[in-house]
Specification:
The complex is a heterodimer of chains A (about 210) and B (about 400). Chain A has eleven helices and two strands; from the N terminus they run H-H-H-H-H-H-H-H-E-E-H-H-H. Chain A is globular, with a radius of gyration of 19 Å. Chain A has one domain. In chain A, a hairpin with a 2-residue loop joins strand 1 and strand 2. In chain A, strands 1-2 form a two-stranded antiparallel sheet. In chain A, helix 3 crosses helix 5. Chain B is an all-alpha fold and about 400 residues long. Chain B has one domain. In chain B, about 60% of the residues lie in helices and about 0% in strands. The chains are: A mainly alpha (about 210), B mainly alpha (about 400). Chains A and B meet through helix 10 of A and helix 5, helix 6 and helix 7 of B.
Chain lengths: ~210, ~400
């Protein structure tokens, strides 16, 4: 690689300007599925950070030995291995959350962000920048997950991380949790709002 | 007063608000200065006013029925007309006010912010929202739902005339899905508390489910019995007149038909859509009735009951014909309306979880209306192309 990679931009760009969810619109399905509560959203975010970072490093280490025509298979095997490890760890140490996330941990394998980063970055870069890129993109994904999860749990269940935050007196005064927030369509609308706010703050991202 | 709002005037920032009120009250006198233009006096504000006036029979009857159901629930046996009307008026007034204040507030704010003229589409929506909601809907829920619908169903698409979905229906659907416990069942459709000392308090034991709600939960094997809140059976005539529990303005098929007559006489609503919605509903009810099964109690309803109960007629006359969200081509209108009728009855009969399907049917077909139009136009183009080719060859 002739051009020098700016480590800082590799790490920080995915947070906002190059965010995998709200700019590249990748991995939307898991954002819709796991964000009804904040806790699973957080765990899902951390799992993706871990899997993405290590997958990036491993692929980057063996990038020169992978035959090009079977590279997708190799990438899938690496990701699948890591996902199984994360899944087993969650089952061992956070069984309840793993129950809630159910199939979606397994579906990290098919998360478009992973394949995208492996193809676009890890296949052509050294392990250290690849690691930074993986962590950065993972965090970018997790941020959105947490924002969406925050609003959905707050308005949908009146709780955060399982603790009730909407005071009981509100309920007595007639306040009712918004059932639509729990349903997936509202997740889509919340993501749309995040994109809306994000675009209006970053003019250069607005399309014509 | 006007110069204050002209460019450079003190209150120029609010010129769109002023402009909105001025053109609302007076037909604009400005004429275009170049070329030949033909203007009709029927601008969109005048159109909206006619739709609102077509809704007035439903509104008045809704007031009477609210009072009537309340008196019934309290176990009264004589029904003083003016007290019933006053009670209904007091029950619906806060809802109309909330719906207009929230909706118009957002419209005005957005118009100011974008420096555009105020669009008047909310005039109709604002009166439709209280009419299609249960009378006991908490006011704050109504406010949240209205705000959601105006912002996400209308303003993000570019305001009046650009919305894909009918705003009033989005409000209703938001309420239905967001607060299911409050929006269905037997508590919201009949007012139980006295308002300003008028009326009494209903005993806790009464149930005020809508007829369709009752049907959905009834045991079909022992035969359908649709009863009013006092336990007397509801006849088809009652359902047609509208003396049944239900959302505020949609119970009376008679008043809806009066409104339909006004809309058709003034040429505002499309008779093609209305006709085909009723045709679709009739066909599907016949099919459902023909292969009725105890699994789906609503399939035992006759065609007349299907069309008179619930929000079907209201949706057909006032919702499906919304010119912005309906199909534009004439052939498309038949298809659009027919499918609304069919889908409304399908949801009503085959999904026991949703006693009423008309609003969902309209919303779904709103989404398909552009596709229907596209297909109709394409089919027309293809037919003409073929004609051209046969002539050439």
């Amino acid at each position: 690689m002739a051009d020098k990679i700016n480590y800082k931009s590799v790490f920080f760009n995915p947070f906002s300007k190059d965010n995998p969810v709200v700019v590249q619109i990748l991995g939307i399905c898991s954002v819709l599925a796991v964000t009804a509560k904040l806790e699973p959203a957080l765990v899902m975010g951390m799992s993706v950070i871990a899997v993405l970072a290590f997958a990036n490093v491993i692929i980057s280490l063996i990038r020169n030995t992978i035959p090009t025509n079977i590279r997708i298979i190799v990438q899938l095997v690496v990701v699948a291995g890591l996902v199984v490890i994360v899944d087993q760890l969650l089952k061992a140490y956070a069984y309840d959350v793993s129950k809630q996330l159910s199939v979606f941990i397994g579906l990290i394998i098919t998360n478009c962000i992973l394949m995208g980063r492996l193809e676009a970055f890890a296949m052509g870069n050294k392990p250290w920048p690849a690691f930074l890129d993986g962590v950065g993109n993972g965090i970018g994904y997790a941020i959105i997950l947490v924002i969406v999860g925050f609003f959905r749990e707050l308005f949908g269940s009146g709780t955060l991380m399982g603790y009730q935050v909407v005071p009981q007196s509100f309920y007595e005064a007639g306040y009712v949790n918004n059932g639509l927030m729990i349903l997936p369509p509202m997740a889509l609308i919340v993501v749309a709002c995040v994109i809306w706010v994000h675009r209006s703050r970053n003019k250069e991202l607005q399309e014509e | 007063m006007k110069p204050n709002f002209e460019p450079g005037g003190k209150l120029h920032a609010f010129h769109s608000v002023f402009d909105g009120f001025e053109t609302f009250l007076f037909t604009p006198q400005t004429t275009s200065s170049s070329g030949v233009h033909i203007h009709d006096r029927m601008d969109s504000k005048r159109t909206m006013i006619i739709v609102v006036s077509a809704l007035i029979p439903c509104l008045l009857f809704g007031m009477y029925n609210t009072g009537y159901q309340h008196w019934l629930a309290c176990g009264e046996s004589h029904f003083p007309f003016w007290e019933l009307m006053l009670y209904g008026f007091l029950a619906v007034l806060p809802r109309i006010v909330v719906s207009y204040v929230v909706g118009l507030g957002i419209e005005f704010a957005v118009a100011q912010w974008r420096k555009e003229e105020i669009q008047e589409g909310f005039l109709v929506t604002g009166i439709l929202i209280p009419l299609i909601c249960p009378v006991e809907t908490p006011l704050w829920m109504l406010a949240v739902a209205t705000a959601f619908a105006v912002i996400f169903a209308k303003e993000v698409f570019g305001g009046t005339g650009y919305n894909i979905f009918n705003v009033a229906i989005v409000t209703r659907v938001f309420l239905f899905f967001a607060y299911p416990a409050q929006m269905s069942g037997d508590k919201v459709f009949v007012a139980t508390e006295p308002i300003l000392g008028i009326g009494g308090t209903a005993p806790d034991s009464f149930t005020g489910a809508t007829p369709l709600g009752e049907v959905a939960t009834s045991d079909a094997a022992s035969g359908l019995n649709i009863t009013g809140i006092t336990g007397d059976p509801i006849s088809l005539w009652d359902a047609f007149l509208g003396l049944i529990p239900g959302s505020f303005g949609e119970t009376s098929t008679l008043c809806i038909l009066i409104g339909a007559a006004i809309l058709l006489a003034t040429g505002i609503a499309s008779w093609r859509i209305m006709l085909s919605v009723f045709a679709g509903g009739t066909v599907m009810s016949l099919i459902a009735n023909w292969c009725a099964s105890p699994l789906y109690p609503a399939s035992y309803l006759t065609v007349g009951q299907q069309l008179c109960l619930g929000g079907f007629a209201f949706a057909a006359v006032f919702m499906a014909t919304d010119p912005v969200t309906a199909a534009r081509t004439n052939t498309g209108k038949y298809i659009y309306g027919f499918l609304i009728g069919v889908i409304a009855i399908v949801i009503r009969v085959y999904n026991n979880g949703y006693p009423e399907g008309a609003m969902l049917a309209v919303l779904l077909m709103n989404a398909f209306a552009p596709l229907i139009d596209y297909c109709v136009v394409q089919a027309n183009i293809n037919r003409r192309m073929r004609r051209l080719k046969t002539k050439e060859s």
